[in-house]
Amino acid sequence: MEPGSIVSAVRSQRVLCGEEFRPAVIFIKEEKIHSILPDPGAAVHTAGEVLDVGNSLVMPGIVDCHVHVNEPGRTTWEGYWTATRAAAAGGVTTIVDMPLNSIPPTTTLVNFQEKLDAATGQCFVDTAFWGGVIPGNQLELRPMAQAGVAGFKCFLIHSGVDEFPHVSDSDLHAAMKQLQGTDSVLLFHAEQEVQHPVADEGDPCEYSTFLRSRPDIMEFEAIRTVTQLCLQYQVRCHIVHLSSAQPLDLIRDARHAGAPLTVETTHHYLNLSAENIPTCATQFKCCPPIRDTANQELLWSALKAGDIDMVVSDHSPCTPDLKCIDNGDFMQAWGGISSLQFGLSLFWTSASKRGFSLSDTVRLLCKEPAQLCRLDNQKGSLIPGHDADLVIWDPEKVFTVAEDNVHHKNKLTPYLGLPLQGEVKGTIVRGRLVYSHGSFSSQPLGKHLLIQQKTQTSL
Fold first, then answer.
1. Are the CB atoms for 21 and 60 separated by under 8 Å?
2. What is this structure's pTM?
């Protein structure tokens, strides 16, 4: 079946049905899952084409709710065309685009419309959008929520780009008051300055020098702030890219006290460790930083215990010059890791060795991210009535990340040369085959996802 084809049914020996995988046929009608029937050996009565994928595993498409596409304004870093093709190649059927590092940032209703215009006709997978909270824009939040943003992100420390300044305590209280009574969510980059930075005599080409500049206490204190606000206002809050295990007790205590708080971590914190980052290897730099192996194992334990809700990419690419590849200066290099295409394989490579199941994978990479964005009524699960978003993959197949199979605009990633377990063979978005065995549909088939507020009267 050619990429771009409309798929009426998918047959496989391994389809996720509830908590287990079994032979089944998924029938698709008008972009939705119509029914899932057992016994794929039975005659399939359908007017359209049946895609028989044999023993390949079929599960819901990945929902990656933390992606920096950078369009408009910084399309040399990435863009909707390349980002969403890469997503499709990795089994991701829905992305949620961050309000930065595009220019302008998605911090006003006018800027949101500019973002939508830029994305139109370019998305190979379905795309939703986060808004942003910056100093003084609190009166833009409800109009943006009414227009369909999934929620809002803020920084408690410099964001890395001047057009998206970080917020003060008074800004946070103003934003929380605007969001009370809505079902929106406020996302926090949870690091904050704890003291005046002291000049570090370390070698800027050594990763340890950068790591010392962003200690765990910065995350700990920021998350203390978040938990207090969440409890006070009872507004849904979400901690993005948790890198440190130290604040986990704070998170647990806040939840037990009734805070509507969720937490994500990323593939790089679960797969990369500080001890193994080579000198000058600035492709490993991100903020918060990759910490040591002992911390990494605590993150895995928290994921298993349910203290961390989901795993995302935090795909944050840039051009090679901004990574300071020539001089290897960690202190000057852009902080961000490219991984959108490889999230499923990265997760499964490590998770399968730690006793995680395929149904755990669906929960952490599909269901929970969809729920965060209020897309769980249509995304993240294989159930009738949901969008027919499917990833077809081989969880046993090992492949190596190489430049010629990277579909991001810039090929720089810390995963180059890494063997990964779990190869994506095909990706279906709302019943259309957008990716198959290295080839893409000729035209983008994704659509914009505008999130409807459930409590319109309070808006």
1. no
2. 0.96
